[in-house]
Amino acid sequence: PFDDVDLGKICREACRRIGPQIEKANATLEIGELPIVKGDARLLMGLFENLVDNALKYRSERPLEIRIRATQKGEVWLCEVRDNGVGIAEEDFDEIVVMFARGDDGSNTQSPGIGLPLCRKITEYHGGRLWADSGGDVGTTICFSLPASWRPRTHGKMTSSHQSGSTC
User: Fold this and answer.
1) pLDDT tens-digit readout, 20-72
2) Quick one: which of 21, 58, 62, 160 is 20 to 30 A from 48 by CA?
3) Which DSSP string corresponds to 75-109?
């Protein structure tokens, strides 16, 4: 069963845990009001860690700015992690969120990591979804939805033990 999870609290804790990387990048981090949802706190903390770590890894030459916020739209919370990094081409996002997807350049190399696929699985496990809104070369906004009122899922079980704590 899911518990009440204060997303603001776990987001701040996730950012504290990767604080040295944030400081090293001299990044500006802004965390807005985040809701309390039903969920698995360890998995949701991993979600935030992965998304912020991705922003750190794929930053541009500009001073890095990361903004995290949520708004309620009907029966869901729409959460976003926005950065001003290198961006993700929208046509590439579906490929990036598939675990162990192969690149389309013919090199037979694996995708950069399992971070975004893991984030997608975590949001789906919580009854939501994950997508990107990219501005091309002016950054990326990773959006995810979570139910404002939780309903039990009947399939796709995922336990905290599947979250290894690794980042993107």
Assistant:
1) 999 999 999 999 999 999 999 999 999 999 999 989 988 888 899 999 999 99
2) 62
3) TEEEEEEEE-SS---HHHHHHHTSTTPBPSSSS-P
